[in-house]
Amino acid sequence: MGLLIFILFLALAAGILALALYHEKKRREALERVAAQLGMRFSAQLPEEIRSRLLQAGFGLFERGHGRRFYNSMSKRLIDGTEITVFDYQYTRGRGKSSSTYRQSVFYAYHEDLHLPRFRLHPENAFFHGIAKAFGMQDINFESHPKFSRSYLLRGQDEAQVRLRFHPGVLGFWEQHPNYCAEGAGAHLILWQDDRQVNPEGMAEWMRLGEELTQRLRRM
């Protein structure tokens, strides 16, 4: 009886794995078609040059957990020279039965003229408040935009520069788009929603949103 249960368990695990691989394959194929329609370069894995830039930027998102993967990459260069990349990213927290894997779509903009102060923006919650306190950083609030201050936790090493870049146009953007996360540093900007992958049919709108944020952050 014990052997039968073990065999059934293995069969179930194999079935779950096969189903996950099937869905991943279908998503990859759909994203490849979307990339072709949008005139973008598609790669099953994030190109090493882009991956290295992201890791060198020191973003907190890419320091979480273990088993990190960068895949399903779509890239293009805008007329103004900004390099845009959208990709899937996953990581795992915990080990064994208590582990959880998180998957999200990430928008990445790169341009030497961005000159962003280092900042991290997350929806307001107790977890990220704890992180902020651990790093000795306080939430940056704006009396002129109470909705933003209630909805988001904004941290940065140079508060004056962060306030300068988060002008009314940027604050209004965040008030219209709740539950997003972002990090900026120098020439780099990333945007995502925790544990949410964008459907292939929503990729064009997702990139439009990221490009709009990039342009607003460039205006001071």
Describe the structure in your own words:
- The protein is globular, with a radius of gyration of 19 Å.
- It is an alpha+beta fold and 220 residues long.
- The chain has an eight-stranded antiparallel β-sheet, sandwiched between helices.
Short structural description:
The chain is an alpha+beta fold. Helices cover 42% and strands 29% of the residues. The chain is built from seven helices and eight strands.
Secondary structure layout:
Elements: H1 2-37, E1 41-45, H2 48-56, E2 66-77, E3 83-93, E4 100-110, E5 116-123, H3 126-134, H4 146-151, E6 152-156, H5 159-165, H6 168-176, E7 181-186, E8 188-192, H7 203-218
Which tags fit this structure?
single chain, 220 residues, alpha+beta, eight-stranded antiparallel β-sheet, 29% strand
Helix content: 40-55%
Radius of gyration: 19 Å
Secondary structural class: alpha+beta
Q: Which strand order spans the largest sheet, edge to edge or round the barrel?
A: 1-2-3-4-8-7-5-6
Any low-confidence stretches, pLDDT <50, length ≥5? none
Order of helical and strand elements: HEHEEEEHHEHHEEH
Shape label: globular
Q: Major beta sheet, specifics?
A: 8 strands, antiparallel
Strand content: 25-35%
What's the end-to-end separation, in Å? 70 Å
Instruction: Figure out the total of helices.
Output: 7
Count every beta strand, where a strand is a DSSP E run of 2 or more residues. Answer: 8
Provide mean pLDDT, rounded.
87
